[in-house]
Amino acid sequence: MKVIILMGAPGSGKGSNAKILEKRLNIPQLSTGDILREEVDKKTNLGVQITKIINEGKLVSDNVMVDLIENRIKEEDCKYGFILDGFPRTLSQADQLDKLFAKNGINDYIVVELVVNEDIIIKRVLGRYTCAKCGAIYNEYFSKPKVNNVCDICGGDTFAKRSDDNEQIIVNRISIYNKNTLPVLKYYKDRNKYHTINGLLDKQAICEEIAGLLK
Ligand code: AMP
């Protein structure tokens, strides 16, 4: 069972690297942000309740998040492992995840923090956009598609920007990260699960380094 918890501030590259790792290790990326945005797009009951929270860069409640992850990791594709991207984000989520792991017989996992300094983070978030068809992530400053306005992966020509990737909200998201999520890193350091990787390295190098940490 390969279980990876990818941590890092907004814009540190969790999503892009998780997508590469997913293919390399053949285990699914469980991005709580993507799951929640899907609920918002589909206007489900949950989606309607959380739209404002997400648009303001605030955190969705711990109980909602834990239920969501509990249901997701029970699915068939998680049988051999999974990559958590964006969860846990609070100490209570980390604690409840620990209990969930124990309940499901998962005793081995690694936590990897992608470290990137704040100037770059802000540029990454403000420049970020995705292919509307396949979700591939691009950046107008750092990584545009090879052919202008054509997705490298699926050939799609429609792109989308996240509503919370703007200058005003990113400051809020970083401060919420510092307040609520930094203590989670300490939680994992205390349990000897924590590893750190320079998030500015090439994506393939990051992926190999993470793969090498798995026993
Ligand atoms: P992300 O795509 O990981 O940046 O997440 C986008 C937004 O979804 C966050 O700003 C939160 O509003 C919400 N969200 C994602 N994961 C969590 C989580 N583990 N706990 C609470 N809220 C979350």
Polypeptide structure, described:
The chain has helices spanning 14-25, 32-42, 45-55, 62-73, 91-103, 118-127, 167-190, 203-213; strands at 2-7, 29-31, 81-85, 110-115, 128-131, 137-139, 159-160, 194-198. With 215 residues, it is of the alpha/beta class. The strands form two sheets. A five-stranded parallel sheet has the order 2-3-1-4-8, with helices on both faces. Helix 4 packs parallel to helix 5. The N and C termini lie close together (10 Å). Bound molecules: adenosine monophosphate (AMP). Adenosine monophosphate binds at residues 10, 32-33, 36, 53-54, 57-60, 65, 86-87, 89, 93, 164, 173.
Topology at a glance:
Elements: E1 2-7, H1 14-25, E2 29-31, H2 32-42, H3 45-55, H4 62-73, E3 81-85, H5 91-103, E4 110-115, H6 118-127, E5 128-131, E6 137-139, E7 159-160, H7 167-190, E8 194-198, H8 203-213
Parallel strand pairs: 1-3, 1-4, 2-3, 4-8
Antiparallel strand pairs: 5-6, 5-7
Helix pairs in contact: 1-8, 2-3, 4-5
Residues 10, 32-33, 36, 53-54, 57-60, 65, 86-87, 89, 93, 164, 173 line the site of adenosine monophosphate (AMP).
